[in-house]
Amino acid sequence: MEAKMIDVYYWTTPNGHKITIYAEEAEIPYRIVPVNIGAGDQFRPDFLSIAPNNRIPAIIDYAPADGGAAISVFESGAILQYLAEKTGKFLPADLRGRTEVMQWLYWQMAGLGPMAGQNHHFVQYAPEKIPYAIERYVKETNRLYGVLDKRLADREFVADAYSIADMAIYPWVVPYERQGQKLEDFPHLKRWFETIQARPAVQRAYQVAQEINERPVVSDASRSILFGQTAGVVK
């Protein structure tokens, strides 16, 4: 019996890439539903009904493990955990292995993603260049790269075996040059990065991104949509 597809509400951002990487690695049938965040698609009522934080990605699983009605999931870390638990892939079943993976997944969600995201904002997108903000987030990104490099000094992947933690972290390291970082300064991270970059499933996931949004550009119009929103957009 053919597996049912999941719908992946997606745009070509690091958090979006996490889910296509997982789907490709786990060989999950999926359908991309583009959510053009530069055009404001994330504020459509139909999207808000499954992603109340008006952020991509989100999924709808039409064949959940409990056999019930379709289930939607938002937040990229929650989606990775959900899919890993459903498929039994890339998340260890034993207590200690699972704990290793989950703490590094949360490290990315609470640390690397938000700090690198602020780095991107103040370096690339802010209309006014604020030296203090730029220095603060470039340095914090550097510190986090150092944490990751140290972790990888004696292991191939962040939690020993390749897992959802690696899939969550990798897309946030891809734009390292934009973050003011040099991989040569972090030899263990660089080796890990190149290993994941060479994986066929990861390459397929990034090819999907090229097909959806070949030339990502943030214009003045899209900047006003992406940044500075208030609670009014979700009412």
UniProtKB/TrEMBL annotation:
CDD domains: GST_C_YfcG_like, GST_N_Ure2p_like. Residues 3-91 form the GST N-terminal domain. GO terms for molecular function: transferase activity. Coiled coil: none annotated. Keywords: Transferase. It comes from the Bacteria. Residues 94-217 form the GST C-terminal domain. Belongs to the GST superfamily. This is Glutathione S-transferase. It comes from Sulfuriferula multivorans.
